[in-house]
Structures are given as C-alpha cells and as structure tokens.
Amino acid sequence: MLASMAIFLAMTLSEFRKQHGWSLAEMARRIGLGPHGAKTVQRYEAGLRLPEPDVMARIISATDGQVTGQTFYDRVIARRAATVPASVD
Fold it and tell me: According to the model, what pLDDT value does residue 8 have?
C-alpha cells in the first residue's frame, strides 16, 4: 500500500521559484499580488512575513502543492529560534 502512495518533500517558495526560472515579480503575478508583490514575495522567502490564508491557498495552487504552509512556518520558527538567547543553567 505504501509503495503506491506519492511521496514528495515540500519545497520552499524560493526553491520552487528558482527551479522554474521565475523572477520575484513573476511569482507575485502568478499568486495574484499587487504592484509591490515582488517585495512581498521576497519577504515571504526570507521568513519576514507569513502569507495570509487566501494568499497561501494561491501559492499552493500555483505550485501544484509543492510549496505548503508548513514550509513558511518552519522558516519563521527557525528564524525566531536563532534570535532567542540560550538558557543559562
């Protein structure tokens, strides 16, 4: 049963965009962002901003599910963990 299941690893938005040769502006256009969309995509990729649920749905659709919400949350969590000082015992 497991052999028949499609298994893939989620990609980051940046990985997907670069693999397809899309600029930040092209990615923004494909997910329906406005005139400053390229900057917004750049912030998503850097983990500085999380997409709103409607934008996340458009990202999932534009990437055929290869980019998921989890990839964004993992990036933000890692970024925040890097800024938290280690506890002193």
Answer: 54
